[in-house]
Design brief:
The structure is a single chain. By secondary structure, the protein is α+β, with helices and mostly antiparallel strands. It is about 30% helix and about 30% strand. The chain contains 7 helices and 10 strands. Strands 1, 2, 3, 4, 5, 6, 7, 8, 9 and 10 form a 10-stranded mixed β-sheet that branches. Helix 3 packs across helix 7.
């Protein structure tokens, strides 16, 4: 029996051995960002009879399809502000047809870290000028990063939503005040990663949120970025998918991305 799109995604995060979430020589560790991880997902999922589209900007898609760009026009037509962007959107292929169910993924890459007791992993945003005329990473967002966007994706017409937390580990930049031993570094890294994911899982489970969740460590290797699964939870069917505004956004996705889906 053919595996579902959800199963294919979670196949990238099996519990037993490290899996590749980026197949090929990755960029230098300090240049890996969310876009790198998303591109890795695209390549890996594209091998499994799925269509995959990264970085879906609903506002731009609307402008291309309808010519509407004024906020009052868009809100009046959709009953929705067409936010946020969808980091990763995918579904099954049936012959030449790109069909549903639609799976939307919000990806957060925790990479700004030192482990030296004063900087926990945070999400990278962009490079900004530093005081020496060079560039440095701007970072924000704690363990909860992306939870708000994942919940907002429930109103964008997708059938399932997943929040993916990818927590970067590189022994060369992970420092401890008391030890440089690699195993000590790994132990500290694992404990922080588990704490991040455990608290997100508590929020999802306690409030019975319909989103899925995956947390994985990411370690750059010579020929790949390997994921070490920390936690995963399958999503429930999106309860908003039949809302009127969601139907209009599904129509936009269908026309703009050449999808054969109901709306």
């Amino acid at each position: 029996m053919k595996r579902t799109p959800l199963e294919r995604f979670f196949d990238l995060f099996v519990n037993r051995s490290p899996q590749k979430i980026y197949d090929g020589s990755p960029p230098p560790s300090d240049e890996i960002r969310e876009e790198t991880i998303v591109d890795g997902f695209v390549d890996r999922l594209d091998q499994h009879e799925l269509w995959v589209t990264p970085r879906v900007n609903l506002w731009e898609l609307n402008s291309e399809q309808t010519g509407m760009w004024k906020p009052e026009e868009i809100v009046g037509h959709y009953g929705h502000p067409l936010q946020p962007d969808i980091d990763l959107l995918f579904g099954p292929v049936d012959g030449s047809r790109r069909t549903g169910p639609l799976v939307g993924v919000e990806v957060k890459h925790f990479a700004y870290q030192s482990g030296a007791g004063n900087v926990l992993p945070k999400t990278r945003l962009a490079t900004v000028p530093d005081e020496n005329g060079g560039q440095e990473w701007q970072a924000e967002g704690g363990f909860y990063a992306g939870l708000d966007q994942a919940l907002a994706l429930l109103q964008t017409g997708v059938d399932y939503v997943i929040l993916a937390h990818i927590i970067h580990y590189d022994p060369d930049i992970w420092e401890l005040p008391h030890s440089n031993n690699t195993e000590d570094k790994r132990a500290a890294y694992r404990e922080i990663s588990k704490t991040y994911s455990r608290n997100i899982a508590r929020l999802i489970d306690t409030f019975d949120l319909p989103i899925g969740y995956v947390a994985a460590g990411a370690e750059p290797l010579t020929d790949a970025i390997a994921s070490h699964t920390i936690r995963k939870r399958s999503p429930d069917r999106n309860p908003f998918v039949r809302a009127e505004s969601a139907g209009r956004i599904r129509a936009l996705l269908s026309e703009g991305l050449d999808l054969d889906i109901e709306y």
